Amino acid sequence: MKYPILFIVSLLIIAATFFLTPEQKSGGEKFLIVIHGGAGSARPGMTEEEKQAHIAGLNTALTTGYDLLGQGKDALSVVEAVIRVLEDDSLFNAGRGAVLTSEGFASHDASIMNGIDLTAGAVGDVRRIKNPISLARMVMEKSNHVLMVGDGAEKFAEKQGVGFVPPEYFITEDQKATLKKRLDQMNKAGTVGCVVLDKNGNLAAGTSTGGMTGKLPGRLGDTPIIGAGTYANNATCAVSATGWGEKFIKNAVAFRISALMEYKGYTLKQAVKEVLDKNLAPKDGGVIAVDRAGNYEMYYTTPSMYRGVMTSDGIKEIKIWE
Fold first, then answer.
1. Out of 52-56, 188-192, 259-263, 297-301, which region has the weakest mean confidence (pLDDT)?
2. Residue 170 DSSP code
3. d(CA 77, CA 19)
4. Does 63 participate in catalysis according to the annotation?
5. In this structure, is residue 184 part of a structural domain?
6. Crossing angle (nearest 10°) for helices 150-160 and 132-142
7. Does residue 21 lie within any of the structural domains?
8. Which of 22, 85, 257, 315 supports an S-S bond with 61, CB 3.0-4.6 Å?
9. What gap in Å lies between CA 242 and CA 188, rounded to an integer?
10. Tens digit of pLDDT for each residue in 153-175?
11. Residue 275 sits in a domain of what CATH number?
12. Is-contact 55 318, C-beta < 8 A?
């Protein structure tokens, strides 16, 4: 009788497998990463060489994060690692390539959030920290605070052994030229960000920026404001924003997307589109977002947004314009 029993058990296993979702069949290890390098900052007349340089920078960050996820790294660590890559790339408005204030120095904001328990850390107006995203994580994990700014944040960084660089490290010839041209204009784009779903089904988000070209010293945008430029909640989604920071703060954009999903049952696509289309004006910016089911959005109302996605399902896409 043991053979018929084994046969029946085998049939039951096969039948059960037939009704599993693709994620369940793969052991629940679906993962993905989405990044952005700023909305509205791509010049239509950029050369092919400039275009390919930006795409290469996005690709380096994207593949770095994807490889780490494939190795089983947690979402929070992947977000930090990817944004560090973008901060070190002078082509993007974060870290090394940050835009300059009206007084000619670089001032950095960054934040990071863990979807597991809503813990978050952020820094604002730091001027000597090589990788602001790592300091934001330290604020989250090694202090009782969420947001630290200016001298206080840098004194905290000294105690934590964070990498310092002289202010001149951040100043590139390109940004000096940009400042000279735009002191009387408002540049509403820049910012880098990353959202991740890891193999364990956890979400995380992070954002880093130099802010607006020619901004007044002391100005903070949405990037270091949890719920405005960054938000992550395993129950809903992870979001990173880019654009005109003041608008994203006033409308609590990142949290509003999550709230529509949590309280009104919206899909990720519905929530993202409603918030950007109804609460923001055209050309205000864009967001990247991912939900716990592995759906993702890269939505923007500007002419362009540097962006990319890689998924364990084999999707890979890097774009600047439509």
1. 188-192
2. G
3. 34
4. no
5. yes
6. 80
7. no
8. 85
9. 9
10. 999 999 998 889 988 888 777 77
11. 3.60.20.30
12. yes
| Nearest alpha carbon to residue 248 among 199, 302, 201, 291 | 302
Residue 30 predicted with pLDDT over 50 = yes
Q: What angle do CA 206, 134, 61 make, to 5 degrees?
A: 60
In a domain, residue 31? The reply is: no
Q: Are 286 and 6 in contact (CB under 8 A)?
A: no
Let me know if 102 is exposed, middle or buried by CB neighbors in 10 A (0-12, 13-18, 19+): middle
Q: DSSP per residue over 229-283, as a string? A: TEEE-TTSEEEEEEE-HHHHHHTTHHHHHHHHHHHH---HHHHHHHIIIIIS-TT
Q: What is the pTM of this model?
A: 0.88
> 191, 207, 209, 242: which is the annotated catalytic residue?
191
User: CA-CA distance, 242 to 284, in Å (whole number)?
Assistant: 9
Is 85 part of a structural domain of the chain? yes
Q: Running DSSP on this structure, what letter comes out for residue 284?
A: S
